[in-house]
Structures are given as C-alpha cells and as structure tokens.
Design goal:
With about 675 residues, this protein is an all-beta fold. Among the domains are: about 170 residues, Neuraminidase, CATH 2.120.10; about 80 residues, Immunoglobulin-like. The chain has no helices and 55 strands. A hairpin with a 4-residue loop joins strand 54 and strand 55.
C-alpha cells in the first residue's frame, strides 16, 4: 500500500511478460504502470516493500531473461524500474518472498544457490547498495527458504520448502531451525496415489523422520494411515515426479536427483514389508524419471527428463528381474513432463518443442526402439506440460494443458493414434473473476477416464479462485464443474490426478475397452484393456452361437497392475453365422463379473465342431455338422490321451479315465480341414 493505493505485479499478460499495476480501492480504478519485458526483470512472486517514495521487490528473473533474480526499485511517480542488485548462483539465487526493513537495512531470502545450493538469507543496505551479510541454508536448518522474513524481538523468521521455520539471530549472526511443521507423517504429495487391495499408496516429498519424505498407505475402508518407509539417502532429495507402479504386490518408484547423486529406482514388497534400493541412476543412462512407466515384454519403459548424451533426457527400459537398466534413446530439444501411455503396442507421450514452445506428440516403438514425432500443433491447442501424460478413452488419447489457447487458460486436447490428428477439444474459460459461474481454468494433473468421461482438476478459477474439479465427455463435448477447491490450505500440484478406489464388495478391475474384430477373414481377435487391477485371477474367454449359452474357449491370467494392461485372444475356429463373445473375469476370492457381449458374423462355414458341457464331468458331447472326422484329445503336456472316429451328428465320449485339468482337441475331417478347441475336465 502506497498513497492509499495498492501496487503489485502480474507474472503473465500485458504486452509481453507481465505488468506492474496500481489499483485504487476507493475508485476501483486499475492502471498498468509498467510493462515487464521478457529480457528484463520478471516473475514477481513476492510483495513490494514501501521505502519512502519508492517500492522494492525481489523478482525471480533478472536482470536479463537468464539471470538468477535481482533486487529492483520501482518509482510510482515516474514509473521507472531500476535494478539495484543482481543475484548469482554462487551466493544465492531466486526469491519467492519480499524484503523486510529492520534498523535501516532490508532482509530477504534466496530460494536456491548458495554454498550447497540450498538457498540463502541476506542483508541489503540501500544506502550503500551492498549486500553485506549472508547466511546459507543447510539440511539441518531446512532447505530452500521461500517466504518474506518477519522480525520479532530482533530475530528474523522465515519458512522453507522443507517445512521448517528458521530463526536468524542478526546480533549473534546464528541460523537455527526454530520449528518443524508436522513432518512426522510426511508432507506434500506431488504424484498421483495408486490403489491396490483396499488401500491407496503414495509418496510425500517432505516430512518423515529425515524430512526426505515417506512412502505411505491408507486403507480406503477404515481410513487407517500407515508409514511404510522413511526416505533417507545421502545425495538424493525427494521421491517426486515418478509415479508409483505396482505389480503382483510390489511397488516400484524412483527418486529425483540432487547435488551429489542421480537418484534411485526402489521397490517395496507389500507382503513382506521390505524396502529395497534396486538401481542407482546415472547421468549417462538418464535420471529425473517422471510419469507413468509401461510394463511390456516383462520390462518397464519410461522417460528420464535429464541426462543422456545431450543431457536432454532418455527413453529407458528397466527389467525388475535382472535389474538391467538400458538407455534406449537419447533425447534433445524437447521438454517432457510425464510418461507413456500404451496403444496398440506403441507408447505415446505429449511433449513441448523447446525451440518454439509448441505442443507435440511422440510415439515410441519398444519393438525396435524407434522414437517418432507424429503430431505437432501450436499454442492455440495448449501449452505447458499438460497433465504430464495421455489418458486413453475410447481409442483416443487426452491430456490437459495449463496454459496456451486464445485466452491463455489452457485446454483439454485430443490425439487420435489412428489418424495422428491432434486437436483442442475444449478451451478453459478465464480464471477471473472468481464466482459460482466460473468453471475453472488451467488444467493440472493427469486426467482420469471413467464410464466414458474424463475427470480432472484445475488450479485457478472457480468460486474461490483456487481451482475446481470437473468431468468432461469428449463425445458430447459436455463440461461439468463438480466442486470448488477451498482456498485455505488447499493446492493442486502438477502430476496429481484422480485415482479410482474400490471399497469392499466391488470387483477388482476397471475396463477401458473390449473389442472383437475379424483376423485373416476366418478368425476372431478379442482385445481388451484394463485401467487397473487388484486381486484379479484372470479372464475366461467365452463364445456363444445364440447369445445365451456360452462356452469357454480360452484363458488369460491377470497382471494385477495399477496401470493399463492390454490383452488379446484369437478364436481360430469361430462358429458359422453370428458369434457372440464375452469374457468372465474372476478374482482370487472367487467373485466374478462379465464384460459386455460383442457380435461378429462369419456367414456360413461348412465345417463346425462344438463340445459341451464345459467344464465336463464324465461325458463329453461332440456336435459335428460336417462329415466324418478323427477326433484327438491332447493333455497339457502335448501328449495325445484319446483318439476317436466320429460321424456327423452328436457323439458322446466317456472321459472318466482322464484326470482333472485343461485339455485340447482337434478334429481332422475327410477333406483335410480341421478344427481345434479346448475344454476343462473336473
């Protein structure tokens, strides 16, 4: 406040790179006082401090676009902006707070830089324009100071990103940790939680016994919160950015790099309660792993956003059995915020082209390790990292962007892998003014596909200006605001998103799609994908000639993963005419559910064998509508256990001599054609 008017700075908008503004609350008149330039001071995150007839501030950028921040003076009378001091990384860089006056000098904080790159506290004398005293943040006091200092009884207090209150006794020139904010259970969840067997699992980037974050679980039925592991490793910082992944009761994750290490891939065995560091990441192989990994060919495929030959990141594979980590492709010239999404054996990810900031789509083929740019667009589609990665719905991929488009407030974008068409499906409305009618702006986090709709989050707009939750139907283009985020203590971070959880009594899979198409004109290919699985025993593939009486024709075991899993099955001998297909999903507790029924018409085929019942107890009925045939039964080891000549019509075989298990049959007709199938013997 200066001369009964309010002064502040906007990070965006204006002619170029934000503005310094003046607002008179008495007249409600808003005036742009100074237009910030991309080549000068910018990114004002702290407040202005009044000093006589001028205002001081500490923007994060400056004195040029590559600078480490600075102290600036703004004169409201002349609208002149002057750089007083430039920060350098060696002594302290960047500042998210403002300046505080004490005994004729100003005190502030640097969020990064300093002796150990943990940030710094400084004292600035405006009379001599000298920064005369600095104190460097340490792991013991708390790293990355990020607030405007406050003086109480001759001592300066500030808060840090590592959740501590730091005290600087200016007279004694000592720096100590005064308080830690509730860190014992972990703080600051920055990645999406995963669901498995009645619990959600996640990581925090702060808190715990060592203030390095924790791995935790929470029971969705009882609400019990448990800390599974306190992170503590010299050299790596916080377990952020990499999403957690689970396969057969084992959680996998990766930590970020820090000053002296590149992070690790770790695992936690839910059944045994053991935590193990599996692989130490390297600069050459890639580090700073973000987003979702895809399990294919018994390996995980993912994106490391740093390291590699050009230090632009890598595409990697990691085998959890052999612990072999392989750099498959070196990246350069692209910014990536997340991981892969699998469609048809290819892995897709949204990226930003570094040279122009435009959004694009990359496709990776794990079969030959090739990386292809398949679609590009411009800022009218959206800009920023989006939701870090794509979400698959009805064969198309979707992501949310926090910025770009004509109004600058982001979008929901759609990419079609079949045509490589990349379009803006919906632009978010303005974040201002907040109100009940404001639906939210700036998409944040990974979108969730559920029941034909996309669910997501925004971090601006809405009733309180703090964002909203929403759902969107890409077919009908209907967008619905669900809830307004409460501003007090609420924040939606990049990388978050909704997770489907299942309470007691609900079946353990989330189905993305189930399709049946002709293969080579004479066979049927069944394809389906799950969004998540837990306690899933597997899928029994079933076929019917009338849509009522189904028989089992195959089996696929479940993968029990928290991520997407794709399956397929070939029916080599469909029935003549209409074929009805479905699968029966079974969990480990014996509960079952059925997929939707799909139809496929093969017209009139002259040869057809069917067997029933399935499973069979004693007598197996064989229905033959063609000609005499030799009927072979083979056990699971490949040995022929029965051979019988059958005629046209129905033949009954006595199978009491056979043991329980799965058997395969083959009927060879007089013209040399054949038909095969399988059945279960109880």
């Amino acid at each position: 406040v200066y001369n009964n008017k309010m002064y502040g700075a906007m990070q965006f908008g204006g002619p170029d790179n934000g503005v310094i503004f003046e607002w008179d609350p008495a007249t409600n008149i808003y005036v742009i006082k100074y237009s910030l330039q991309s080549g000068g001071p910018g990114n004002f995150t702290g407040p202005f401090t009044v000093a006589g007839n001028v205002l001081y501030a500490t923007p994060n950028q400056g004195p040029d676009q590559f600078g480490n921040g600075c102290i600036v003076e703004f004169n409201p009378a002349t609208n002149a902006l002057t750089v007083k001091q430039s920060f350098v990384a060696a002594t302290g860089a960047g500042s998210y707070g403002g300046l505080t006056l004490y005994n004729g000098k100003y005190y502030g904080t640097n969020t990064t830089g300093g002796a150990d790159s943990r940030g710094a506290y400084f004292e600035w004398d405006p009379a001599s324009n000298i920064i005369s005293n600095r104190k460097y943040a340490t792991a013991a006091t708390g790293e990355q100071p990020a607030s405007t200092p406050v003086f109480v009884n001759g001592k300066l207090y500030a808060t840090t990103y590592t959740s501590s209150m730091v005290e600087w006794d200016v007279a004694a020139n000592t720096l100590t940790k005064a308080f830690t904010f509730g860190e014992s259970k972990g703080q600051r969840i920055e990645t999406r939680v995963i669901y498995y067997n009645g619990k959600v699992y996640g990581v925090t980037s702060l808190g715990g016994n060592n203030n390095k974050g924790v791995l935790f679980s929470k029971d969705v039925n009882t609400g019990v919160y448990s800390i599974l592991h306190h992170f503590n490793k010299t050299g790596f910082s916080f377990p952020t950015h990499s999403q957690l992944h689970i396969n057969n009761g084992i959680i996998y994750g990766a930590t970020d790099a820090s000053v002296s290490a590149s992070g690790v891939i770790y695992q936690y065995n839910i059944n045994t309660g053991t935590y193990t560091e599996r692989y130490n990441l390297t600069t050459a192989g890639g580090f700073n792993i973000k987003g979702t990994w895809i399990l294919a060919n018994n390996k995980y495929y993912g994106i490391a956003t740093s390291g590699g030959a050009s230090f632009g990141g890598t595409v990697f594979s990691w085998d959890p059995v052999t612990n072999v980590f392989t750099n498959l492709s070196n990246l350069s010239g692209y910014a990536m915020g997340g991981g892969f999404t699998e469609v048809g054996g290819f892995l897709y990810t949204p990226i930003t082209i570094s040279s122009n900031g435009n959004p694009a789509v990359f496709r990776f083929n794990p079969a030959n390790n090739t990386f292809t740019l398949v679609a590009t667009s411009n800022s009218n589609l959206g800009s920023g990292y989006g939701g870090e990665e794509f979400t698959l719905l009805n064969g198309k991929l979707y992501t949310g962007y926090p910025a770009g488009t004509n109004n600058g407030y982001g979008s929901i974008a759609e990419f079609d892998p079949a045509t490589n068409n990349f379009v803006n499906k919906r632009s978010f409305s303005s974040a201002y003014p907040p109100g009940a009618a404001n639906t939210g702006a700036a998409s944040n986090g990974i979108l969730l596909a559920h029941n034909g709709e996309l669910f997501g989050l925004t971090n601006a707009g809405g009733l309180n200006g703090s964002g909203t939750t929403f759902k969107y139907n890409p077919v009908t283009n209907v967008f619905t605001k669900l809830e307004d985020v409460i501003p007090v203590g609420s924040s939606i971070s990049y990388g978050n998103g909704f997770t489907i959880v299942q309470r007691t009594g609900v079946l353990p899979i989330q189905l993305n799609y189930f399709t049946v198409v002709k293969e080579n004109k004479t066979q049927a290919k069944l394809s389906w994908q799950t969004a998540m699985e837990q306690n899933n025993k597997g899928f029994a593939l079933q076929r019917s000639g009338n849509g009522i009486d189904f028989e089992n024709i195959g089996w696929r075991p479940g993968t029990n993963t928290d991520r997407t899993a794709a399956y397929s099955f070939i029916d080599v001998q469909p029935l003549p005419g209409l074929n009805y297909y479905r699968f029966q999903q079974s969990d480990l507790d014996g509960r079952t559910s059925f997929s939707p029924v799909k139809q496929l018409d093969f017209g009139n085929r002259k040869a057809f064998i069917s067997t029933y019942p399935n499973p069979v107890q004693d007598l197996l009925a064989i229905r033959n509508n063609f000609s005499q045939a030799t009927f072979y039964i083979v056990d699971g080891k490949g040995a022929t256990v029965m051979q019988q000549l059958i005629g046209k019509g129905t033949t009954n075989l006595n199978l009491t001599a056979l043991s329980k298990g799965v058997y395969y049959y083959k009927a060879v007709f007089e013209d040399g054609s054949s038909q095969a199938g399988s059945f279960n013997k109880n």
